[in-house]
User: What shape does this take?
Amino acid sequence: MTDLADLLDDLARTPAPASRLRPGDMYAAGRRRHRRTVTAMVTAAGAAVVTLVAGVAFATLDRSPGPVQHEPQPGQTGQPAPTEPAPTEAARDYHGAVAAAAASDPDHLYAVVLDCGTATTSPPDWYSCQRDLLASGDAGRTWQMRNRDFGSFDSIRLTALPGGVLVARAEKLISGGALPASGGYVSVDGGRTWKVVELQDAPVSQLAAGGWVEWSWDATAGIWAGDPGLARYTLMADPPALKFTGTAVRNAVGGAWWLDGVDPATGQPAVAISVDAGRNWSTHVFTDIPVAENSGYSVGSATLDGRTGYVVSMTGHGIDGGGRVWVHRTTDGGKTWQQVEHGGTAPWSYGGGLSYLTPDGGHVIVNLGGRDGRRSFSISRDGARYTQVTLAGLPEDDLAELPRPVPGGGYLASTIDAVYVSSDGLQWRRIVPHAA
Assistant: This one.
């Protein structure tokens, strides 16, 4: 889940508040909640240990020291960039909020943050704050202003691929900037410059090197093959026989492309794998589980090396019961699959199926939350039995970017306040991207 619309969709599953919340209201509430929590910690500790508690809290909560470092612009080599006026107290409810985050490897991180230093309303609302694209090349220790006034959108999805490639999808334009309108964009220089991704009519039989795939907006039409060098989307000439159930950007993992969805004929979960850049696909339909009677399947696949992987399939209605979960595993790149969880220990949730593998062989399933909206996580070493696990350092609520593997190694998640990174998917470190 990577944008404000998804956050509000999750909010709709919890008991309704007294009034409807706008995305900006939610940002502000999260910022105020964070400040109240820190204040309460210090107050409760007592005067004798204030210094110790404050030192531990800030060492834990913010391991990204120093302000953003502006890169010299052409003709300004060696000259510091001008600083913006400090935001007002009211602006701080929004200033620095993380709208999107991505990483291509453990060192190269990206964040779209709200910049309210020059907000056009008083007090500012989130619509009047510009967005900045920040980048870090040292695992979040320092940040550079990669693109000021990135554009203001109701939602923004950001995906980082190897080699400095960034893919962005912006929706519901508020005001243009580096991204001038709603739509898809690609950057091949780490976000310094951007091109509109154009749609091409002629299908292609092979995925571009360093490219990506996205489900077409009409889920029955197939998949779009993204080519970063040509900045174009093209339909695959011979896509796998799947009905796709999501809109996520995918890239190759371990030399293999994994796509999940459902069989168009039966609605049963299925996964398609290609090891030759999309020229040929091997599709497996999980016929050992029943056809869904009253609801469709939510399906998610996960692999770190293209050989060992899992598919989690969920169906049913209602947080209080009626949902069912099936877990399948392969150890040979999808040639064979086994149903491995039979005891009802895998968690079920609305929009579920999201999971990831850890380097030591663990399989973590993300529970998107019940009525309280809190996330939880369950892990298994063999897929047979899942037990709830605490991801140290990662909050269970307010997650905007749910935990996911990074193409070049490691893991990424984010809240409205910070970016979180991990080397093993279990122990997490909090980083606050600093805008000037």
Summary: Residues 23-45 form the longest helix (23 residues). The radius of gyration is 22 Å. Helices lie at 4-11, 23-45, 50-61. Residues 1-23, 31-92 have pLDDT under 50 and may be disordered.
